[in-house]
């Protein structure tokens, strides 16, 4: 007998290219903004596609990362992060509040403003390597992902957390394995290796603390004995993963968005200081590197959008679809750096607002103001439709961005 779950659409939905959403998102947002789907693992979940419901659920304390009965929880994929429940159900709220208290000072807007000059130095150095690669082989495209999108956030998060930059290739490889959707046990093994690595870092910081986030976390352990070495290692590994994977993807997609319409590129190149803030917000709103949504579990029955999410059910909040809701954004598929207000949900909302938002904005603003000032004639070496989407990765995106100038 065929069940309703078996008839539900399965993620990820097919999409025409990396810049366009899957057409099914628009259909669901219009006709069934709270709908049952199947995850890539085949398990049932609610998919949220409209802005009002997405915003409400982001701010709802009855949703969490933990599950009342973890062994019964719907699973998204084989990725080692954001693929199933995590944390202790009874302690999740207290743990989240403690961790945000620990991390807010490190990722504050004030600290990010102080970091801007250093980010600028790193961006300039990355663009130097791009130019050198072009000079060495002027007839060949240069991979912007290799020279800018990947190394910049790696350098920044390494410094912020206190990770030696010479280890970048090691944790870059681990991060790639952690985010694979269909890797079986390898993703979990990579996360264990990642956690073991950050445990060693924490041990070194305990002996010789410096001005970085891991040293701050080690200090917090002395004040809170419930903050275990295992919890510290998992948190540090998560910060390393999120701190470079998501930003790298947004740099790639922002460049692709601007180079897919050279009028956009030329406008920013003509006035980078005046347009960069609005450009970055539109890049954040319209970028959709992955196609799964943010995973949460209901800790109680929740009424939203005319539906009841039962306790224990999985919810995938598709901020990429919510960010193109015509009820909130006029002409939502139009890239408009002058858009005001721009109430996108790229960083979530409420208690689940991304703690690294200020860091990401700092990096993106420096990148896009500098890149097109230095290379105003930058353009894609291939058509956007020919780029390969990394559909097998949690964070999606593309593997390369070949450019010429």
Would you give an account of this structure?
The protein has helices at residues 4-7, 23-31, 51-58, 92-103, 109-136, 144-149, 151-161, 168-178, 185-207, 213-223, 229-259, 262-270, 272-286, 319-322, 357-374, and strands at 34-38, 44-48, 63-64, 142-143, 294-298, 302-304, 307-309, 314-317, 379-380, 402-404. The chain is α+β, with helices and mostly antiparallel strands and 405 residues long. Strand 6 (302-304) and strand 7 form a beta hairpin. The longest helix has 31 residues, at 229-259. The chain is globular, with a radius of gyration of 21 Å. The termini are far apart.
Strand order of the largest sheet: 1-2-8-5-3
Q: What structural category arises from helix and sheet content?
A: alpha+beta
Taken in chain order, the helices and strands follow as HHEEHEHHEHHHHHHHHEEEEHHEE
Number of strands: 10
The fraction of residues assigned to DSSP E strands is: 5-15%
What gap, in angstroms, lies between the N and C termini?
A: 59 Å
Overall pLDDT: 90
Helix content: 40-55%
Shape: globular
Question: Radius of gyration over alpha carbons?
Answer: 21 Å
Write out key terms for the chains shown:
49% helix, alpha+beta, 405 residues, 15 helices, 3-stranded antiparallel β-sheet, 10 strands, 8% strand
Give the arrangement of secondary structure elements.
Blueprint: H1 4-7, H2 23-31, E1 34-38, E2 44-48, H3 51-58, E3 63-64, H4 92-103, H5 109-136, E4 142-143, H6 144-149, H7 151-161, H8 168-178, H9 185-207, H10 213-223, H11 229-259, H12 262-270, H13 272-286, E5 294-298, E6 302-304, E7 307-309, E8 314-317, H14 319-322, H15 357-374, E9 379-380, E10 402-404
Helix pairs in contact: 5-7, 5-15, 7-11, 8-9, 9-10, 9-11, 11-15, 12-13, 12-15, 13-15
């Amino acid at each position: 007998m065929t069940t309703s779950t078996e008839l539900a659409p399965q993620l990820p939905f097919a999409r025409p290219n990396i810049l366009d959403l899957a057409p099914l998102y628009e259909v669901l947002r219009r006709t069934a903004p709270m709908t049952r789907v199947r995850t890539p693992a085949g398990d049932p979940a609610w998919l949220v596609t409209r802005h009002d419901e997405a915003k409400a659920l982001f701010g709802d304390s009855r949703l969490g990362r933990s599950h009342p009965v973890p062994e019964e929880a719907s699973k998204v994929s084989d990725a080692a992060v954001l693929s199933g429940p995590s944390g202790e159900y009874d302690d999740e709220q207290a743990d989240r509040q403690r961790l945000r208290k620990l991390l807010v000072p490190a990722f504050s807007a004030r600290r990010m403003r102080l970091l801007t000059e250093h980010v600028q130095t790193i961006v300039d150095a990355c663009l130097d390597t791009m130019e050198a690669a072009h000079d060495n082989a002027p007839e060949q495209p240069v991979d912007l992902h290799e020279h800018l999108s990947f190394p910049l956030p790696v350098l920044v998060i390494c410094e912020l957390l206190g990770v030696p930059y010479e280890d970048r290739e090691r944790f870059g490889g681990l991060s790639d394995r952690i985010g694979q959707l269909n890797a079986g046990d390898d993703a979990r093994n990579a996360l264990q290796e990642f956690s073991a690595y950050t445990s060693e870092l924490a041990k070194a910081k305990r002996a010789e603390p410096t001005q970085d986030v891991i040293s701050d976390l080690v200090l917090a352990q002395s004040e809170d004995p419930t903050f275990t070495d295992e919890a510290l290692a998992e948190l540090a590994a998560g910060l390393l993963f999120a701190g470079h994977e998501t930003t790298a993807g947004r740099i790639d997609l922002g460049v692709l968005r601007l180079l897919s319409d050279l009028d956009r590129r030329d406008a920013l190149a003509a006035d980078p200081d005046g347009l960069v803030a609005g450009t970055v917000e539109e890049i954040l709103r319209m970028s959709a590197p992955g196609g799964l949504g943010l995973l949460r579990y209901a800790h109680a029955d929740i009424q939203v959008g005319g539906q009841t999410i039962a306790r224990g059910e999985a919810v995938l909040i598709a901020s990429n679809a919510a960010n193109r809701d015509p009820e909130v954004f006029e002409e939502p598929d139009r890239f408009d750096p002058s858009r005001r207000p721009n109430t996108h949900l790229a960083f979530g909302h409420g208690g689940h607002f991304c703690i690294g938002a200020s860091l990401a904005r700092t990096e993106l603003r420096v990148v896009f103001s500098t890149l097109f000032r230095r290379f105003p004639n930058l353009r894609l070496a291939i058509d956007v439709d020919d780029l390969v989407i990394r559909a097998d990765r949690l964070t999606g995106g593309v593997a390369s961005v070949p450019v010429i100038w």
